[in-house]
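Q: Sequence in, structure out?
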Amino acid sequence: MSQAQGAPQSPARNNPTERAGKYLTFHLGQEEFGIEVLKVREIMGVQEITAVPQTPPWIKGVINLRGKIIAVIDLRLKFGMPAPYTPRTCIIVVQLADQGEQMLLGVIVDDVSEVVNIAAGEIEDVPAFGISVPTPYILGLAKQRERVKILLDIDQVLTADDREGVQAALGAGEAQ
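A: Exactly. Output:
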């Protein structure tokens, strides 16, 4: 069973204590999300992105980050939440675990909020939305200050097929 079809969660994902910690929070539309701080390498403004032909619309292309070509995805488009860029739109560079190797990926978000410490008692599991709504990329839902933050497992946001598309974009970007 592929992860996109609701693969079982790892033990760490089932244990709120393992999910507790520091998260970088950001917005996509009206929703607030969080990524584990340890996965974040840097935050930068949107810069010129080289488009790569024949990639999905959510793969915006590639950028040169200090001599290294990295792919950039628009998380809003990936999640079906199109919105125009604003002066606060930025790129979060994250480090993904990809089959035992590390891969840098740029993620476009509407704006970055803050780094918050989320306690285990503030995290709830994702409700079952049904088999047709897979959510393996959501670590949990954090309740803070009367708001709900969606905690992302950034390693799970891209399916195996998505990663192939990103790798193809990287290959095309390095050839240019």
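Residues 160-175 form the longest helix (16 residues).
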